[in-house]
């Protein structure tokens, strides 16, 4: 039995019926051409037969004196955790997204290990889908992506069939006492980081008054994105060409992430104008930044960047330039800090926002307007057994006062967007997908005009 770390405890305490605290993912696969009619049924049976469960998938919560611990689950029910569903004919993508929206709004059972997998057959064009969700106390989005990546193979073949809950740890040479030693070392590094983090906080306070490129947690305007949320969800997903985005980035001397933020900014600007709700001041995005070591596959280690989305600027090139300056400020600051110093500074800087989220004091007044996270994914084609993965779409968390979350992951030559929102707070949210595509077209035209002039 082991104690739940402080960051993961926050995710447990934040959870309520209207804000489930799990991250998820939707993956789309092609049924092999020579597959039997009951191919997906056999796949589910084979997955359920893999019943030697590796940590952390075999852990459930146990409370002692109000303190949560992870303990082994001795009554593991594989049929509960791995479920088989089918879409009604004709199995349109909109039906798949509607089903996954409903599943993502349901809480995980805390009496069991905090994960579920749904295998969904009957998708049009001989496809099936897998929807997976993990509680954020168990792992963050980067950790979830790494776990999902490890059960997929670069080689097609039934002999390569793997499941995420039975993968061996990436490193098997560590002695049994290494986890405790690592915890002590981490605690020491975090304590040692506090003086430098305090100095950085002072520098940030100074920059907030004197640096025009500074963007912080006190600048977000009131916005319809920051309404209280219900428990209902709407999920929208679509991929865009990563090569096109690279070319735009090169044309403007920006990064892919800068262009992604510019696309999100343009789409949000258009959506808010549609609803006569565009604030006069620019929207502020919170960007999680992974601080994981290369061999870490679970847990929560993130820093934060606050980005000015420049939604008050109509010109797309000027908007992209303003976004880039805002992000570059935090890149320069974090480059001089260790991961422990970053986490300590972020914890102090974000404490008011965290208190607001926990207590719900002012759900309409948030420290940021939207969360946008971008997780690098695989460049090569991947397979689940002999089924080729066609796309993967991340799903994150909606909070009271944070009615929209935009997550991205790259796969081959596509940047896959997953948008999750409160269905009631943000009507017709799926229009954002169309606006993202139009924003990419607009940036390409602007880059072309700049090259011709």
Count of extended strands: 15
Q: Return the CATH topology of the largest domain.
A: Chloramphenicol Acetyltransferase
CATH architecture of the largest domain: 2-Layer Sandwich
Instruction: Report Rg.
Output: 22 Å
Q: Give the terminus-to-terminus CA distance.
A: 66 Å
Tell me the count of domains.
2
Q: Strand arrangement, largest sheet? A: 5-6-7-2-13-12
Quick synopsis:
The chain has 453 residues and is an alpha+beta fold. It is built from twelve helices and 15 strands. The protein has two domains: 2-166, Chloramphenicol acetyltransferase-like domain (Chloramphenicol Acetyltransferase), CATH 3.30.559.10; 192-376 and 397-452, 2-Layer Sandwich (Chloramphenicol Acetyltransferase).
Please tell me about this protein's structure.
It is a single chain. The protein is an alpha+beta fold. It has helices spanning 6-14, 39-49, 78-81, 93-104, 141-150, 178-210, 242-252, 256-274, 316-335, 339-349, 351-359, 431-452; strands spanning 2-3, 22-30, 59-64, 67-72, 82-86, 115-123, 127-135, 233-241, 284-290, 302-308, 370-375, 383-384, 387-395, 404-411, 414-422. The chain contains 12 helices and 15 strands. The strands form 3 sheets. The protein has a 6-stranded mixed beta sheet, with helices on both faces. Strands 8-15-14-11-9-10 form a 6-stranded mixed beta sheet, sandwiched between helices. Helix 7 packs across helix 8 (256-274) and helix 8 packs across helix 9. It is globular, with a radius of gyration of 22 Å.
